Amino acid sequence: MLKTIRAVYVFIFARKRFARLNRFLFSLSLGGLGVMNYGSSAITGERAFLRKYLPNKTGVLIDVGANKGEYSTDALALNKSLRIFAFEPHPKTFKELAEVVEGYPTMTAINKGVSCTTGKLELFDYSDKDGSQHASLFKEVITDIHGAEGFVSHQVDLVTLDQFVSENSITEISLLKIDTEGNELEVLKGAKDTLAKGMIKAIHFEFNEMNVISRTFFKDFEKILNGYKFFRLLPNEMLEIRDYHALYCEIFAYQNIVAVLEQD
C-alpha cells in the first residue's frame, strides 16, 4: 500500500514546478522527527527531557560547553542535589559563567575545554561578537557555517573526561551534556574508559551541520556508544532511533540527541 502511494506521489509531484512544495513538506517532516526545531527549550525538547529525567537522579551532571550556565542552572532548578561540573573554555564567556556559579554551591565552573587529549588548542569566535555561543575548535564553523568575515582565536586548555573523572574520584555520571560546536565525538573519545565502565548513564548532545566540518557521522556516535539507546528530542517526548538507516540518521541539521545506557 505504501509503495503504491509513493509511486503515485512520485508520478504526480516529482516535477520541477512542485519543487517548492516538496521542500516545504520535507521541512515540515523534519520538524516532526525532531530536526530543525530551533527556539526555546520548550521547542527543542530540552525542557521536557530534563523535567522527566532529572528529578529522581542523584550524583554528578557534567556540562561540557556550558556557555553562561543556562543548562546547568535549569538542571539545578529541577534537582538541587546534583553536583555539577561546568566546562567552558572561552575566557570571556567563562567570566560570566563564574559569576553565575557563585550563587550555586553545588556547581563548579572549570575554564577548560574537553576533548580526546590534554594540551592546548585554538578556540575560534567572531571578531565582532567574541564570546558567542558559536565558539568552536573548528575555524570553519565560524567562517563557513556562519559566514563571518573575520574571526579571533584564543588558546585554551584541554582535559579529557577520563582524566577529570579519575582525578575527582567520580564514580557515576547521571547526565553528560555536550555542546561543543562539532567536537562532540572527540569529547566521547576522551571518555573511553569512563564509558567502558558504564559510569555515564545518559548523554545529551547536538548533531548538526557542524559535524560536516568535523567529518563526524551519526554512525560514529552509534559505534562509540555501543550499549546505548538513541533518541531524538521532540517538544514533549523522545523519539527512539531503533535502527540505523543513513537516510534517517545522517541528517546534518540541528537536532538534540539523547543516548541512554540500556541497563538503565
Automatic annotation (TrEMBL):
<dbReference type="Pfam" id="PF05050">
    <property type="entry name" value="Methyltransf_21"/>
</dbReference>
<dbReference type="GO" id="GO:0032259">
    <property type="term" value="P:methylation"/>
</dbReference>
<dbReference type="InterPro" id="IPR053188">
    <property type="entry name" value="FkbM_Methyltransferase"/>
</dbReference>
<dbReference type="GO" id="GO:0008171">
    <property type="term" value="F:O-methyltransferase activity"/>
</dbReference>
<keyword id="KW-0489">Methyltransferase</keyword>
<dbReference type="InterPro" id="IPR029063">
    <property type="entry name" value="SAM-dependent_MTases_sf"/>
</dbReference>
<feature type="domain" description="Methyltransferase FkbM">
    <location>
        <begin position="63"/>
        <end position="226"/>
    </location>
</feature>
<keyword id="KW-0808">Transferase</keyword>
<dbReference type="InterPro" id="IPR006342">
    <property type="entry name" value="FkbM_mtfrase"/>
</dbReference>
<protein>
    <submittedName>
        <fullName>FkbM family methyltransferase</fullName>
    </submittedName>
</protein>
